[in-house]
Write a structure and sequence with these properties.
alpha+beta, Immunoglobulin-like, 3 domains, 4-stranded antiparallel β-sheet, 8 helices
Amino acid sequence: MDMIGEQDPYVVAELGEQRVQGQAVVNGGINPDFKDEDLILYVTPESWSHNLRLSCFDEDLGRDDLIGAAEVPLMPLMQAGRGRADEDDMVGGGGGGPSVARAKLALGLKGSSGSSAGELNLTSAFYRAGTLSVEVVEARRLKDTDLVGGIDPYVKLTALGGTQAIERKTKAIPGGGSTPTWQETLRFDVVDQHELRLDVWDSDRFSADDMVGQSTFSLLPAYKKGYQDLWVPVKLRTNWGALQSSGEVHLRIRFEGPPGVAYPQRQPRLDAFDDAERVTEKGQLVRAARAEAAAAAGLPVSAADALALESENGTGAAAASLGGGGSGFADGPSSDEFTDQEIEDAFHFIDLDRNLHIGAAEVRHILVCMGEIITDEEVDEMIRMIDQDGDGQVSFNEFHRLAKHPDPASPEF
């Protein structure tokens, strides 16, 4: 607390090893207005089970004083009702759509002594990531700078966005020279990343690695079409400032995102693309391929996917899985508490390994992250009560039946 004048509060958000600090509100006092400032953190497989810690400090010339802090689990924020994005989240012609989970919070802050230190009001917005897979296949005509033997080249890829750069790199190929072959796939969870920087390096054991060449290109074509097979030219700037060719790198780029979500997100000055025009590696529309897979597995097919399959095949093949008697769900009493889309989103959220089934390990993981103490026997019993076909796991149909039944505790269920 300041002895003279008003305090200058700012907020710090921490998740795992990430720490983001906001701007101080000069003379903000006890009722500061943070002007809807965004503090952006990336939720990773390593960090999503951590609590989100929010701390309020008073900025001083010397050591900043802690005003108060609070912690909140991420799980409820990630499960919050999904709705269309606000105008500020609109990207080009499309918004965040079902990718954004929003929640309004009023957190009671506690000081270092445990006493009440005020309240922090905020809105959380959780954006679902898409998966960018880049196969680094090979290179040709790389500039060989080693005097003895060939260079040991490796590739470093950096996905660039508005908030965080994500780096991945291949293994080095000993003696790969000017025509190395990697055939290695690097994966990125992307939200607002819209460019990819490609660096080719020569790995040196006894000195610093040498740059061979570099290139930066847009990811928008990959977001729009879903698949690219291209040779990327790399260049190196000479001591005189001129750019000279240093070879080419062969990449195969694949992108997958949640249905209806336009990427890149949170980039209002750029065009964004949902899955309407994306194709598979074989040239089939992604929506049509998804409809075929869902129909074959007895899962519900969305209207957009069914229309894509019909337009591609010229038939109504997917209609049997849409609504009415052909929904693929078991007959019986039904509740309207949850929509089919909400049930599907919840299922995919729990299905961590994406095999279209929920196992005991996934149920246990979710419950532990929610703070529940549960035994293995209790988890197995939960699975057994829902598992109709006796395979020891919960399919989407079984999960849908549970969510739609008006009274799952009744004997008839």
